[in-house]
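Reopening this ticket.

The earlier resolution said the output was attached, but the attachment link was broken on my side. Pasting everything inline this time so it's all in one place.
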Amino acid sequence: MNKILVLALFITSIGYSQILEPVKWSTRVEKISNLEYDLIITAKIEPNFHLYALDVPQGGPLPTVFIFEKNAGYELMGAMTEPKGKTMFDSTFELHVKHFEASASFRQRVKLKTKKELKISGEIEFMTCNDSSCVPGYDDFEITIR
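Inline output:
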């Protein structure tokens, strides 16, 4: 009987636990010329959370980082760009830090070395916080250019 009670409590606790994922990522492509494209990676951020910028002060939160897998079919043109965002004093880190609320679209220009269909993949590392907690995050992306 005790095993059944423990099992029931365990199943109930799983039902009430929640994995916190305050950022959802999506991708799209904009054609610039025959061989140049902008990869647009957009974060949709839940209310009351904010996502940190690509560059943050030392001693601050984890920055948003995009890691592109190496592929002979393309080259990165310049650095990833980000929207304007907000720079505010963050009491958690006691620093002025740039962050984004609601959504943020990051852009990376690439130049193709082939005219064939190409898949560009990579990883995103990031941190989001609200007034009471911070959540480090990780996601993969894959973008197809036809």
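Reporter confirms the inline version is readable. Residues 24 and 88 are 23 Å apart (CA to CA). The first strand starts at residue 23 and ends at 31.
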